[in-house]
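Narrative of accomplishments. A recurring question from our advisory board has been how the design workflow behaves on a single, concrete structure rather than in aggregate. To address it, we present the structure tokens for one chain from the evaluation set, followed by the sequence designed for it. No filtering or post-editing was applied between the two.
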């Protein structure tokens, strides 16, 4: 589903964020990216959605080299990739239904599709009864569930999560991880960057550790530390 081939990223100030990364992630796989701040985790994710460009190497998403993607094709790429962030990024003046529906509206889905799919995905994340609520009326964990619903409502083949449990307590984090795990079981490839040691240790999924932009460990059923 996703393949990095000798990918390096050097920023304009000369900082090497990733160095000669080669890595394959299969369809439906759940992958944790771990490592200290500045190790390259966020850069890795930004490259997949073409928020930034690789300095060298190639990145294949569903067999297509996105490094050669024309600018006008980037929105189509992003339609197939759901993104979940630490700070939720919800629209404060829209209801929960409207926040999730917005992800479908921007890609031109019909009102009928929106009416059907939004309640379905809110049911999946356990918030069907909060459709008319606003973000400020929800807990942090509930807001993150809305963020996941918005990322998944279009059933993307890939879901990227950058520190999705960073602002949540351990019990709430556990619920979020169970939700992401269920999403991966239906065939969605999930890549999650995290510093959350307990989450990684409890899940026992594939763990790739980055250090100074290089892969120093790749374990099939790994834990946070080596």
């Amino acid at each position: 589903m996703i393949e990095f081939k000798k990918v390096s990223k050097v920023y304009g100030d000369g900082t090497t964020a990733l160095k000669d990364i080669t890595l394959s992630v299969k369809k439906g796989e759940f992958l944790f990216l771990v490592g200290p701040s500045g190790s390259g985790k966020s850069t890795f994710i930004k490259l997949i959605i073409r928020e930034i460009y690789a300095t060298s190497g190639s990145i294949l998403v569903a067999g297509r080299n996105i490094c050669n993607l024309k600018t006008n094709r980037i929105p189509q790429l992003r339609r197939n990739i759901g993104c979940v962030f630490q700070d939720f990024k919800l629209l404060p003046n829209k209801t929960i239904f409207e926040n999730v529906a917005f992800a479908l509206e921007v890609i031109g889905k019909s009102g009928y599709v929106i009416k059907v799919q939004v309640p379905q995905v809110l049911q999946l994340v356990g918030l069907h009864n909060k459709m008319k609520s606003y973000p400020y009326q929800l807990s942090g964990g509930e807001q993150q569930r809305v963020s996941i619903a918005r990322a998944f409502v279009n059933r993307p083949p890939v879901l990227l999560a950058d520190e999705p449990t960073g602002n949540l307590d351990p019990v709430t984090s556990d619920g979020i991880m169970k939700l992401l795990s269920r999403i991966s079981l239906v065939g969605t490839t999930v890549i999650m960057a995290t510093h959350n040691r307990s989450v990684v240790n409890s899940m026992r999924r594939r763990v790739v550790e980055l250090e100074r932009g290089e892969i120093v460990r790749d374990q099939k059923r790994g834990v946070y530390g080596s």
